[in-house]
Each structure stands twice: as structure tokens, then as C-alpha cells.
Write a structure and sequence with these properties.
Layout lengths: L2 H8 L17 E4 L2 E7 L2 E2 L2 E2 L4 E2 L2 E2 L1 H22 L5 E12 L7 H16 L6 E7 L8 E9 L2
Parallel strand pairs: 5-6, 7-8
Antiparallel strand pairs: 1-2, 2-9, 3-4, 7-9
Helix pairs in contact: 2-3
Length: about 150
């Protein structure tokens, strides 16, 4: 077990099974010293945890929890590809929030992912980020998160 796995356990969290891709892509790919994680939805055991738009049917607080699940799914993809113990730095987080008209709280929603990464990796979990409001996401998901991670080679 890696230090990252130990930190997850400290917070009562564990990595889920890697979510199967919904189309023609892979969950994560390594290029040089970086791993690029495809957009992860809040799916657990093959089931989408919620659907709808944030600000209309999905509360920002619930969406923040869903963003954390997306980050856990991203970590599972990294672990399966190269192992969490190889993570040097979380470089970039991109979060998409299916937003009701007028909803502007995307940064607070994506904090669910960012805060988890910082708890697990400490200073190495601090990252650049975009939090983008969109009209729709795959399967009607409220949030989607993708990562770029530097790994030891």
C-alpha cells in the first residue's frame, strides 16, 4: 500500500473499481512523465449516483460530493495504470458542471475534487484548475472531472 492509499483510508475512503469507458477511449494514458485521466463521472459499481443540473434538482452541496467521487474514480484509473505511489504532483484538474441557467457556483462544486486531492497528496495535491459550467454532460451527470498528473518514471 502507498502513502496515498493510507491517506484515503484515514478519511474512510477507498478506491472504487475503474469505471469502464462509455465510448472509444481509455480511462487513463501515460505519456512520458504525465498521466492524462479521461473525464470521470460520479459512477460507483456501474451506477450513476445522480443526474440533473446543479442549481435545479441537484444541490451544490450534493454536487460537491459527486465531484469528490469523480476524483476517486480518477485516482482509481491512475492506480490501475501506474500505481498511486508513482504520483509526484497533481498538475491540473478540469471540472465540468451541468449547470442550471444562472448557476455560477462551479468553483465551489469542483472543490469536492480539489479538496480530496489535497487531503490525499498534501502539497503535491495543489494544482491548477478550471471549473466550467456546461449545458449537458454524458448520461445526464451533474459533474465530470479529468486530471493531468505528473508521475515518477
Amino acid at each position: 500500500m502507498s502513502e496515498a492509499h493510507d491517506r484515503l483510508a484515514e478519511f474512510g475512503l477507498r478506491l472504487p473499481e475503474v469505471t469502464a469507458p462509455l465510448a472509444a477511449y481509455v480511462p487513463a494514458v501515460q505519456s512520458g512523465s504525465h498521466v492524462y485521466v479521461s473525464g470521470q463521472l460520479p459512477i460507483v459499481a456501474g451506477k450513476l449516483l445522480a443526474s440533473g443540473k446543479v442549481g435545479d434538482g441537484v444541490s451544490p452541496e450534493h454536487a460537491k460530493d459527486l465531484a469528490e467521487q469523480c476524483a476517486l474514480n480518477a485516482l482509481a484509473a491512475i492506480d490501475a495504470l501506474v500505481g498511486l505511489e508513482t504520483v509526484v504532483k497533481i498538475v491540473k484538474v478540469v471540472g465540468f458542471v451541468a449547470s442550471a441557467e444562472g448557476f455560477t457556483g462551479q468553483p465551489a462544486v469542483i472543490n469536492g475534487a480539489s479538496e480530496l486531492l489535497q487531503k490525499v497528496f498534501g502539497e503535491a495535491g495543489r494544482h491548477a484548475r478550471s471549473a466550467v459550467g456546461v449545458a449537458e454532460l454524458p448520461l445526464g451527470a451533474p459533474v465530470e472531472v479529468e486530471l493531468i498528473v505528473e508521475v515518477a518514471t
